[in-house]
Each structure stands twice: as C-alpha cells, then as structure tokens.
Design goal:
This protein has 7 helices and 2 strands. It has a two-stranded antiparallel sheet. β1 and β2 form a beta hairpin.
Length: 160
Amino acid sequence: SKIFGELITLLEADKRIGGDHPIKVTLPYSKELFGVPSNLYIIGTMNTTDRSVGNIDYAVRRRFAFATLKADKELVVNNSIPLAVKLFEAVESFIKKHQIDMDFEDLMVGHSYFFAKDENELELKWQYEILPLLNEYVKDGIINAKAINSDVTVADFLLA
C-alpha cells in the first residue's frame, strides 16, 4: 500500500515536476530520485463493479477526473457479427431484469466483449469473459438470479 500510495500521490497534478508542490521519491533498488513529469497523461480503465478494490477506487477518485464510457450497441453492430448483437441485447435484458443495487450502466458488460469475427470467437468470449462476469455478479449479490451453468452456450442463453 505504501508503494501504491506514493505512486498515486506522485501522479497528482500539483505533485508532479513543475507543479505547485512537486515531490520526488527515492526508488527502492536504484536509489535514484524519481518524479512524474507534468506532461505525462495516463488514461486507464476501471470496472466499477469490482468491489475488491474499493479503497483504491476511493483514493484514485479523490485525485483524478473520470469519464464513464457506456456500453454502445452501435459499436457492436458496426464491428461484429449479427449474433453478437443478439447476445449484447440478451445480456442487457438479463442485467436489467435482475439488477438490484447498482445502476445498469455500472453493470452492463462493455461493448468490446462482443466484438467477434465469427461465431466460434463469440462463443469463446461468452465462455471465458462474459459468462464468468455475469456469474460473479450473481455470486456477489449484485444481480438477483441463479448462476448460469458453465455449459450454457450463446444459443442456449439467447433462448432463455
């Protein structure tokens, strides 16, 4: 926590080299002084439903600007196969039907999860990315539904 806390502090605009309150730290191995330059921009992503990083999330949110990027069905329409659009809609409907204590936008699976060149690739994304995320929501009590069996295919889910 000390190392990550120092890093978060160094990233703050006023703590960077040239800022109002510049800070440098001594690197543990090289013993060199290190500071973050003022022209460094960091763009990161964070899944807002990951509650295991709650304390880190608060620390980061106090110091930086955030922009929410919502799942965009049109991007799936333009960058994937028709079956992926149907899966996007089915996942959207499933989450809306079962959400309990969070906003839908915080729960919806991102559009990039649905980008696939063919049905086989979409099935792999379903089995190893989308389905585990939905089951994690169920396990954590974020949505009120039964866990989805791991042998459920895209076709099965669309029929449910």
